[in-house]
Amino acid sequence: MPIVLYELAGANPAVKFSPYCWRIRMALAHKELAVRSVAWHFVDKEMIAFSGQSKVPVVVDGERTISDSWAIAEYLEDAYRDRPSLFGGAIGRGEAFFVNGWVDSTIQPMLSTLIVRDVLDAVAPDDRAYFRSSREARFGRTLEEVQAGRETRVLELRRLLSPVRRMLRQQDYFGGLHPSYADYILFGSLQWARCTSRFQLLEADDPVNDWFNRVGGLFDGLGASAPRA
Amino acid sequence: MPIVLYELAGANPAVKFSPYCWRIRMALAHKELAVRSVAWHFVDKEMIAFSGQSKVPVVVDGERTISDSWAIAEYLEDAYRDRPSLFGGAIGRGEAFFVNGWVDSTIQPMLSTLIVRDVLDAVAPDDRAYFRSSREARFGRTLEEVQAGRETRVLELRRLLSPVRRMLRQQDYFGGLHPSYADYILFGSLQWARCTSRFQLLEADDPVNDWFNRVGGLFDGLGASAPRA
User: Fold this and answer.
1) For chain A, how are helix, strand and coil distributed in percent, rounded to 5?
2) ipTM of this model?
3) Alpha-carbon distance A85 to B204, whole Å?
4) Can you give the residue range of the structural domain that contains B52?
5) Is the CB of B92 inside 8 Å of chain A's CB atoms?
6) Are residues B15 and B66 in the same domain?
7) Is B177 an interface residue toward A (CB < 8 Å)?
8) A70, A85, A95: best mutation site toward chain B, by most B Cβ within 10 Å?
9) Which of A26, A46, A79 finishes a domain?
10) Same domain, B96 and B58
């Protein structure tokens, strides 16, 4: 029985763009697990009420229901120990959790300010009022105001990525020679941008671009071939 | 035969304060290896000329000479596989290298601007002219100008540490339950400040403080009991 993944879908239901859902789509592919994707929209709170909370990703694996991308990754690692490892052991898991916090507290918030108005155009029609009001409440400004001036502010995102660039001087992935969950954490954020916006985040010759394309090419191009809004 | 570690010493030769040397002192203790510390000063370039470069830490282990803290950590991990692991495997090693780049490109440069004038007072008399001129050339300003306004700029350092704070909500160390090399990377920077400056970097109730004290207490208080300038 395939694992069921509830993931955020856009106006085009084939477009899946949540950064946190992308972490899990990649983790499931890494674990070579069959998946049945269920398209979810922000208004569908009751559809996932059984999970005891109101956000995706939600994973249902037989009797088990798990929400929160980090908790799901840990569940997959522990439940499928015979499959390729996401963390490579206890230390690798701990460090991946640091990467998770680094992306969530620095990259994701900065990136939001660069594309959030574009994301509004990608979300389903019934989700738009909710998306605008919830995000504008969070930012304390209109989405248009938040996104304004991004041509100069994008430099700050590029600067925030400098530790990744430094790492890529010496290795292809966060985990060294091979991809692992830490890659999928950052990949999710940049894939969110790729699927919802045409705004150029990175310079063409940025090594982070090469890394993003490498990760997007994994699993028969799961990320790179995903539909864009 | 103990491993020889050339490490930067201050005006008081018992005071060892280089952030990169501290990474290696902690790594050697983690590996339960006997060490003979050789006090080195910036003017002693010829003392380590045999290493083919001009910076500490330098480690001599029998026939082998290794410089650069990251290269030394990798050497220790590979040469002493039967000892407690610094990385916990390939993925953990790769992620630790990301942490290395994160500290080197964000925390260490910011921290420098807060304490570099204090560090001048800690270095040996013969090193002072070199330290001032090399650092002032790097910053393009006097050390006094660099350090000015730190009472407000320290907030930026605290903000940069937010991914660590987020990690510490859920685990005690970068590697989860137990200390590993990634901890020693960040520890080195904060220990550099502890050994050279009385400026208060962190608020008393900051969880990063608790972590720093935990790491400082390891190996019979190797870090916590180290002399300060």
Assistant:
1) 55, 10, 30
2) 0.97
3) 39
4) 3-79
5) yes
6) yes
7) yes
8) A95
9) A79
10) no
**Both tokens of residue B10?**
């201050």
Q: Please state whether the predicted TM-score (pTM) of the whole model is above 0.95.
A: yes
Q: Are residues A60 and A124 in the same domain?
A: no
**What tokens does B76 get?**
């220790």
3-state secondary structure of A36: strand
First to last CA, chain B: 30
**Residue B102 is assigned to a structural domain of this protein:** yes
Total domain count, chain B: 2
β-pair type (B58-61, B64-67): antiparallel
Longest dimension (CA), chain A: 49
Distances B91 to A6, B85, B126 between C-alpha atoms, Å = 29, 13, 43
Taking the Cβ of residue A179 and every Cβ of chain B, the question of whether any pair is shorter than 8 Å is answered with no
From chain B, the residues in CB contact with A73 under 8 A are: none
pLDDT tens for chain A, residues 1 to 229: 899 999 999 999 999 999 999 999 999 999 999 999 999 999 999 999 999 999 999 999 999 999 999 999 999 999 999 999 999 999 999 999 999 999 999 999 999 999 999 999 999 999 999 999 999 999 999 999 999 999 999 999 999 999 999 999 999 999 999 999 999 999 999 999 999 999 999 999 999 999 999 999 999 999 999 999 9
